[in-house]
Amino acid sequence: MTVRTPRPASTVVLVRPATAGVEVCLVRRHDEVAFMGGASVFPGGRLDPTDRLAEPARCCTGLDVVAARLAHDLPSVDAVAHAVGAIRELFEETGLLLAEPASGWRLPDEAHRVAARGRIADGQTTLEGFAAREHLRFNLAALLPFGHWVTPESETKRYDVRFFMALAPDGQEPLRDDGETTEAVWMRPGDALDGCRRGEVLLAPPTWTTLRWLEQWATVEEALAWAAGPHRWMVQPRLFEVEEEEGGKLLALPGDPLYPPVNGFTARETRFRFGNGRWTPLEG
To answer: Residues 6 or more apart from 123 whose CB is under 8 A from it?
Structure first.
């Protein structure tokens, strides 16, 4: 079996206060998308060559901060690229900007954000070019790296994904993409999990696991404080073939009898079954 090299990617878990607890931004991937079609996911995707900015200090703040947060396993240039990729993917899929305008300027309004994210997604411009035109500076320090997931070796599409958490920007609402994603919504983690249990929401194991972590926090401040803590683990889920009547595939996470513990990683559910096009957590 040829093992494909995973492509670097970034994901943003955007949080905001809810009436009770925390809400997260989830986008639903288009049913026709090859990877995780129909799934509800956090905004994100693979890095683009343009995420390696020519002059990052001209359009970003917090360069040293994000480099220090990922210094345990990434060179600073790669840490910055992952953070920039996270901001770009968030903007392309939701229209939300983690940025501040230069003195005397304002953030682009909704119409300008819609037009700009389309041009960036189509390759007509870059995030760096957009920032220069709109006099923006992206706040990399707003991103708190807390997770590192790598697709199993047996998969044909493989990604090396950094998970970041960030506070939702004030005064902005997510805008639907109608490309790779069909909707962007705010949901409480527990509501998304219950929807998955009822078969109404499709969640991949890393998304389920992250939502299980988030549902324990009563406030956004608690969630962000947890994300800001030391997270030094990397998890590559393990896949096992089983008899078709049992679901076809099992996926195990560290701490499961099929997968030894990984220092620093804990999960409420460590085993998932795949069948009928969806992953089902084996709770209890």
So the answer is: none
Cβ partners under 8 Å of residue 280, min gap 6: 247, 272, 273, 274
What's the token pair of residue 253? 């996470």
- β-pairing, 181-187 with 22-29? antiparallel
The overall pTM is greater than 0.70: yes
Domain definitions of the chain by residue range = 7-230, 237-284
Two tokens, residue 235:
């998890």
Q: Which two tokens stand for residue 29?
A: 């991937």
Q: Tell me if residue 90 falls in helix, strand or coil.
A: helix
Alpha helices per DSSP H over the chain: 56-59, 63-69, 76-94, 110-121, 127-134, 189-197, 205-214, 220-227
What is residue 127's three-state secondary structure?
A: helix
| Domain 7-230 classification at class level | alpha beta
**Per-residue pLDDT tens over the stretch 70-127:** 999 999 999 999 999 999 999 999 999 999 998 889 988 888 888 898 899 888 999 9
